[in-house]
Amino acid sequence: MTRRLLTLEDAKHAVYGGCILGGGGGGWIKDGLEKAEQAFTLGTPELITVDDLSPEDYVACVSLVGAPSAKEIYVDADQLVDTVKRMQKELSHPLKALMTNENGAATTINGWLQAAAVGLPVIDAPSNGRAHPTGSMGSMNLSEVEGYESLQTYAGGKGEKRVAGSVIGNLDISSNTVRNVSVLAGGMVAVCRNPVNVNYIKEHAAVGGITQAIELGEVFFSVPEGPDRIEAVASHLKGRVIHSGKVSEFELKEQGGFDVGIVRVDDLELTFWNEYMTAEIQGVRKGTFPDLLMTFDVDTGMPIVSAEMREGVNIAVISVPKENLLLSSTMFNEKLLKNIEPIIQKEII
């Protein structure tokens, strides 16, 4: 048993380590740090392992769904907590813990605030150990469970855009409904979804993924500000820096609640669908999702998510083979990966 009370220092490391594991998505560092501070005003979140619960205990996943670049995003602490309370009312089983959907700057600490507010622990098993664009990719292959009915509760937006509710249906319909609601809410909603038992989590989630993010954050801050940080991160993840230079072209458009676009640096081309999907140098593939591709400011060593990229920024790009990551079973589901291809007009499979 390895229960531990989390600290603000853990949260800082989780946000920065999670940002790197976000691979261009997973939210903004500023949002992650703010939500972490809010969590500790409500209580002290507790991190537990899969072995701290009974195999039949139920855990629900918390998430943020939407396009990070949207201009009217609003999700407050009460809305985050509301999704969990709605889930507790809707679900016939008692919830014993919360899990995050993925690693990212704002998503690794998903659930810390909600857990502190409602008195539940956080389980060290994200639905995925890296960030990913679609709800189905964060569903631990529930899309392959015949007859599975997805329960999702959501809240977000303010003023006339404020929404809250729940949806029950097959996984695609429920996920697409929440994605569409996020657009109407101004770009993003908080979600609590897809409760499953611990046995299922052990088989399909990225067990140990929160600890991985915290440890990566510790490595990041162990090196002084600058390019050496990028090398330290790449080395720790058993990846490499594939290119560095000035961004010559950056295209981003919001498409169906996602950020879709291209980053070009010299002969390097990165495509992204929230997260970076492919890296090619003169047409030669250097990384393909779910490999981890991530961008950094060369001067400071700070990670840069896709939504904050700009022309003229001097960046370095790392590539980490998927074999060196903690990943969900969905990252090996070719049907889900195939859905990326028409969005970015690149081969993934």
From TrEMBL:
<dbReference type="InterPro" id="IPR024071">
    <property type="entry name" value="S-Me-THD_C_sf"/>
</dbReference>
<dbReference type="InterPro" id="IPR027479">
    <property type="entry name" value="S-Me-THD_N_sf"/>
</dbReference>
<dbReference type="InterPro" id="IPR048350">
    <property type="entry name" value="S-Me-THD-like_C"/>
</dbReference>
<feature type="domain" description="S-Me-THD N-terminal">
    <location>
        <begin position="10"/>
        <end position="146"/>
    </location>
</feature>
<feature type="domain" description="S-Me-THD-like C-terminal">
    <location>
        <begin position="176"/>
        <end position="326"/>
    </location>
</feature>
<dbReference type="Pfam" id="PF20906">
    <property type="entry name" value="S-Me-THD_C"/>
</dbReference>
<dbReference type="Pfam" id="PF06032">
    <property type="entry name" value="S-Me-THD_N"/>
</dbReference>
<dbReference type="InterPro" id="IPR010318">
    <property type="entry name" value="S-Me-THD_N"/>
</dbReference>
<protein>
    <recommendedName>
        <fullName>DUF917 family protein</fullName>
    </recommendedName>
</protein>
